[in-house]
């Protein structure tokens, strides 16, 4: 088959809309080819969200000072609502009423930790600490009750408040404590003892959440008014249902031994009111506790995999995504965080509407389980944190000097010094692997001068002034760091072990200190090729906008600095308004915004940045508005790439696949294998009131329920086309629970077919090889109703219906094509009548040296036709206008000999011709 003459010229010369091809960036340059997720977490940063109050606490059942302090450091003292302490049935009471010295020593140690790190009037939850159970308590509920009361009184005498007591700890596991009946008798005694009148009585904090409801229900008649469970075994259903039941009964729902943030995320969803962290916590746990005081704006769970994820907005407005897994039962799960209303940055990666987070799991308890959890900062606006992963110089904000290691040996000191471009001043800064163990929100920092050593916090210290040095690679938290963004490229570098910042002290030594906000604690990550300097580049000049039908193009005069890193593009919907970063690290001086909505006026400004992360002042502000007139929104030829050759630059990204001989003998098609290959499309490509999709397809014809394309807005909102479902090709639209379907004969296998789908005010139609094969006027759902922004060719993100076969020449229009236009496409003709053609255009002499004559014949209502000539790099070298029935003489005497492209363009059609200058 042959493409039309115009298309052949474009293909041979690698040329269409020359000012855009290879010279212009777009908002689709960062389309991610990410693996499909198991679940979507859809969120809107402006959503009012869900607000719930949950109290959190730190654990002293395992009375470890380091763990206890880390809980407080990461959550913040103001978040410690309760502390879990214990009574010990390991020794009989002296005289039946007095604690033994061993019990007193243990109680005093716990009191020391509470008083030192939390303070007076602390709310306490008491339960059983059971290294063993002395026979004095076995079968003697009165003795057990007396132990609890005596211990509680000691804590109260020291000025603390007992708010909850559970007679047994993990009673389903046993630990020698007794039976359900034993706990019933003890609880019943406390319920009838005025001493415990204002204290919650907790029902069996079971090891397995599947056992929790049994213990809680059994103990209800004894006076239990608090349900409690752990999650070290048991099903997701059992965990969620337990909290739902307890809270719906009006009782207090508690998990007094949180092991992973998944328990808190699920607990938040189903009614948990108190959560106490077992042992110690890390960044993700501490940040989640703070975020819970704000609003939850997105949530998803995978019950069979025992994982969950959510997005929260903190009271300060910080947006954070969280993922968590069961400590002992998780299966690897991918979550796709989907931003509904704007592009955002995920830990500096973007601008994206979506981001896939894989949470690792295992195959069983202690078999591959890493207790994984993660927090991701979601940022937007004018000041967005950089993405960090590579080699850097670390520059201190206060001094302007760089982080330097004194040598390559264990204990080599880290200090600041003037930049001399030494390897001892260069650092590999890379994210930890997801299976590092527990929280994987961290980075390792390695001096380039040392192959085996890492930046290290001396002796796991939690104290201010602890020294920072390097040490042999280790798996512990004292060699892991998180990057806490401040502003304008500056970060705090904070320890996984202590949460403190590394800072430069008065002598130039590097140590840790609690966060103060001082510049001594703030660092920039410069590329190793950059100079340490703070002079801003010049302001970009002459920013102008060009409004098109479905996009807006920006152009400006390129900066001339030799260390220019690129440009940042900002957009707002009012002049001087709330500007958002829609493009970053743009190396070109031209940019197409294809994420606009027709009819809305957008305002733009830009900045230049250099390699040292210095930013210029803002450029002049310009505005633009997409008209929404009929347009070819996107045209993917798949001729060895997934770039959009239309002026809108709606580029795509391929996940696998290969290029092979296509329908057109001059070009290629993309081959998808039916088991993991697909094309990821630009997010706003079909978000129009009416659309048409046209493409050539050669289906292998195997598995049914595959997807030719699917466009979604998350779960249960979609448009898709399947080559065969139940023996019929099926177009399906679903919105707000309503589903509309149009069917036709199944797509033939192993042969090329031309498919066109139209959706418009007249309904929906399907065309095969230029013929309408199905039509319905009752299809009323429009793409703009759904507002899809997760768009694929060749797969369904919900059922993994991977397409097997070939796709060629994929086009999207923002209007329903007419029958004649569909026929023209099938016959490889322009969809409009061509008025600029070989009969109407005469150009001579060619080759030429000094003058080029352009003559245009015929009559048209289009009026003026634009003349443009480009060099092969896309540079515009000549521009003019011509009317019909006239001749223009172009002066080309100043052009360098070579090949140029002459383009004639009016509102109806184009003509492109190669010109040789002698």
- The number of helices is 11
pLDDT < 50 stretches:
1-22
CATH C-level of the largest domain: Alpha Beta
Strand order of the largest sheet: 3-4-5-6-7-8-9-10
Q: What is the CATH-assigned architecture of the largest domain?
A: Alpha-Beta Barrel
Structural class call reads mainly beta
Q: Write down the Rg.
A: 34 Å
The percentage helix is 10-25%
Largest sheet, strands/sense/barrel = 8 strands, parallel, barrel
For this entry, give a set of tags.
918 residues; mainly beta; Immunoglobulin-like; TIM Barrel; Trefoil (Acidic Fibroblast Growth Factor, subunit A); eight-stranded antiparallel β-sheet; 39% strand; globular; disordered N terminus
Give a verbal description of the structure:
The chain is mostly beta strands. It has five domains: 1-28 and 832-918, Immunoglobulin-like, CATH 2.60.40; 55-293, TIM Barrel (Alpha-Beta Barrel), CATH 3.20.20; 390-527, Trefoil (Acidic Fibroblast Growth Factor, subunit A) (Trefoil), CATH 2.80.10; 541-625, Immunoglobulin-like; 630-826, Jelly Rolls. It contains eleven helices and 59 strands. An eight-stranded parallel β-barrel has the order 3-4-5-6-7-8-9-10, surrounded by seven helices. Strands 38, 40, 41, 43, 48, 49, 50 and 52 form an eight-stranded antiparallel sheet that branches. Helix 4 (141-157) packs across helix 5, helix 6 (209-219) packs parallel to helix 7 (236-248) and helix 7 crosses helix 8. The chain starts with a helix and ends with a strand.
In short:
With 918 residues, the protein is mainly β. It contains eleven helices and 59 strands. The strands form 13 sheets. The protein has an eight-stranded parallel beta barrel, surrounded by seven helices.
